[in-house]
Amino acid sequence: MFEDKRASPRFLYTEPVTYGFPDVSVSGGVAGNISLGGIALRVQGFIPIGTILELQIHLDKTPKVIWAKAKIVRMREVLCEDCYEIGLQFVRDEMLLRAIGEYIITYRSNPTHQV
After folding, report:
1. Max Cα separation, the chain?
2. Residue 83's Cα: distance from chain center in Å?
3. Measured in Å, how far apart are the chain's first and last C-alpha atoms?
């Protein structure tokens, strides 16, 4: 049986996320879930584990963008979709944690959003 060892519960989050890092142009990925600890994205190109990405995350329907830094801690190839699924751990930032916390509280009352 699979045991989830994550410290924070994950919630569905299927918005596009813009990301970038040195020597690579800014690209877009589709998120799968988000938590206080990190985010999962599907991206088109291979990015090595340990890479720090800068993310632009839209947490609600407004044009407000949350900037975040996150480190790739997991990666797997999704052959049927010709992409990679990466797990990122947020680099601690109090404003980011507050914004994500508010987003999660909004959806906590709706259990269909929890993964």
Report:
1. 42
2. 15
3. 17
**pTM of the predicted protein model:** 0.79
Block means of pLDDT (10 residues each) for the chain, 115 residues, are 58 84 73 90 90 87 81 92 91 86 74 52
- Name the residue type at position 38: G
List all residues 6 or more positions away from 39 whose beta carbon is below 8 Å from its beta carbon: 13, 17, 31, 33, 55, 57, 70, 88, 90
Structure tokens at 86: 């990466």
Pairing of strands 24-34, 16-21: antiparallel
Tell me the CATH number of domain 11-108, given options 3.20.190.10, 2.30.29.80, 1.10.760.10, 2.40.10.220.
2.40.10.220
